[in-house]
Amino acid sequence: MSFQAPLFLAGLVLVPLLAWAYVAHARQRARAAEAFALRPVQPSVVPRRPGWRRHVPMVAYALAFAALVVALARPEKTVAVPDERASIMLVSDISGSMQATDVQPTRLVAARRAAEDFLNTVPRNIRVGALAFNQRPRALSAPTTDRAAVRAALARLEPSGGTATGEALAAALTILARQRGAEGSDKPPPAAIVLLSDGTSVRGRDPVDIARDAAEQKVPIYTIALGTDQGTIQVEGANGQTETRRVPPDRQAMAQVAQISGGKSFAPTDADALAAVYERLGSQVGTKMEERQVTAWWAGGAVALLAVGAGLSLAWFGRLP
Predict the structure, then answer these.
(1) What pairing do the DSSP bridges indicate for beta strands 242-246 and 232-236?
(2) pTM value?
(3) What is the pLDDT of residues 167-186, one digit of tens each?
(4) Cα–Cα distance between 143 and 140 in angstroms, integer?
(5) CA 244, CA 235: separation in Å to the nearest integer?
(6) What domains are there in the chain, each with its CATH number?
(7) Which of 21, 51, 52, 289 lies 20 to 30 Å from 319, alpha-carbon distance?
């Protein structure tokens, strides 16, 4: 938390001074009572004191004063708010390994459902595009606020072929660069890539090299390495016989891409974990940090504490202190 007028915080010094004055006054009253009558006979001649309750309203008033001082200092809190100029590319692997059923019902179906949830989570004014890839990238939708168009494109995905992660990232960067250039602003709007893949890149450019390009362009890549080490698919062998092939995710490569580009890496192993990742990214990607005043909160707290102190004083003693 920061303050626009921090000099007002010096008023907090008065809180312990007021507490000291209150304690000194209470002790003075106690000495006056002792001077009025001997201690053994005080219960019969000195009115019974309300004990700890008499201090509660004063504590509430002291806290109200402290809250009011903080409010005068105009406190600010750093919060994440949607950046309406942001563009996000969803880059989804549709290679043959996405047929694996270690993530139910299949890796591809789970990824598609989670991506649809992601679209519901991202603020409406942020533009989202989609790109699918196997041995080659295929742009499905340029970044847009039309969520229906992106959903329709994702629904048509079918798994086949190999994996060319680097080519897909390069294509996504090109689309984002074109989108950012169309803004005509001296400061390019923020952009990000959400990459979901379940295997090792076997074709095209090295995704790590493209991650370095993304870092230079200030486009973080959030990677999701989907699947388990036990994931398998059925493929036709050279002899025409069907054989089982293991398709573990390449978590290390995906983590390296995320780290180099300035993004984050995730490795969900089931549909629920994947949905949680997308939900988390939906609330984080495309946002910016801003300072927001919270003066009203502190002022409201001060008024509430004053009301509590006054209410307790009236309820217990029938008067205001």
Answers:
(1) antiparallel
(2) 0.67
(3) 999 999 999 998 877 665 56
(4) 10
(5) 6
(6) 2-78+292-317 (no CATH), 84-285 (3.40.50.410)
(7) 21
